[in-house]
């Protein structure tokens, strides 16, 4: 038997076996060591074999905690998600601004050198003194570009993790922006799988378009007018974009399930697919409206508003995740 309670520090919902009430254990989300309170018994959760035996009150065992299993798919209206996102972002603006500064500062350490290397490689084509170093610039550009993408994936996980913590009403805790290696590898794996899925769909549509264009040209004796190819290309884009957007929306919530529930890559992809069902239009509208707002702010502030773009993404991801899974929000969002 088991019961649920909230972590005293990060307010994550946790489940523990009945027999460790009153003992010390460590939260897997924030690392806080705390005394497990007396709780109300709830129905059995996964087999007891999944829990390691408690060793000593002075050596807490993180495996005693598991993420709650009582999530329920919930269909949410756009207006509700929009309002709750706005309430959270405005109530914790300083925290989200800090997230933006940290994320932008870290990514610039890799994005900046990538841009410089690319610029030097282009200059080398017309400069004899730089020409011998073009291969070196190209390799360095590839390295920093890959590093920038990897760091971006890491910060996305941390940003969503921190945003979920804030959405539950947790206190400021910037260390949540930097998850451990295990969570990062799970998110990296999920990101790669999602990228491959989107690329496969995109590639399939392109291949179909090429085949259709070829059939049209053959039907015209191999001398069809150029507008045939242009027409196929335009139709291909019109067909591909909604499919790609739909697929991306169904799969983009993996970070939340990994950050909050420590799910594996495949499990997180499945959860994202399951809980986003029925919410695609609301989610698309949420992302579109906040994207437009972020762009408008960036333009009006001569680019400074771009610091808020990533925090806004983290914020609506956290709110949408909690609402889609039937979890409560903190008091400031109600």
List keywords for this structure.
60% helix; two-stranded antiparallel sheet; 9 helices; 334 residues; 2 domains; mainly alpha
What would you note in describing this structure?
This protein has 334 residues and is mainly alpha-helical. The protein is built from 9 helices and 4 strands. The protein folds into 2 domains: 2-64, no CATH class; 78-189 and 251-333, no CATH class. It has helices at 78-91, 93-124, 134-167, 181-219, 226-251, 254-261, 265-276, 280-300, 309-324, and strands at residues 2-6, 13-17, 24-26, 33-35. A two-stranded antiparallel ribbon has the order 1-2. Strands 3-4 form a two-stranded antiparallel ribbon. A hairpin with a 6-residue loop joins strand 3 (24-26) and strand 4 (33-35). The protein is globular. The model is unreliable at 40-68 (pLDDT under 50).
Please provide a brief summary of the model:
With 334 residues, this protein is mostly helical. 60% of the residues lie in helices and 5% in strands. The two termini are 32 Å apart.
Would you spell out the secondary-structure blueprint of this structure?
Blueprint (H helix, E strand, L loop, with lengths): L1 E5 L6 E5 L6 E3 L6 E3 L42 H14 L1 H32 L9 H34 L13 H39 L6 H26 L2 H8 L3 H12 L3 H21 L8 H16 L10
Antiparallel strand pairs: 1-2, 3-4
Beta-strand percentage range: under 5%
Number of strands: 4
DSSP summary: helix tally: 9
- Tally of discrete structural domains: 2
Structural class designation? mainly alpha
The arrangement of helices and strands along the chain is: EEEEHHHHHHHHH
State the low-pLDDT regions, or none: 40-68
**What's the rounded overall pLDDT mean?**
81
Q: Percent of residues in helical segments?
A: 55-70%
Largest sheet, spatial ordering of strands: 1-2
Q: Roughly how many Å apart are the termini?
A: 32 Å
**What is the makeup of the main sheet?**
2 strands, antiparallel
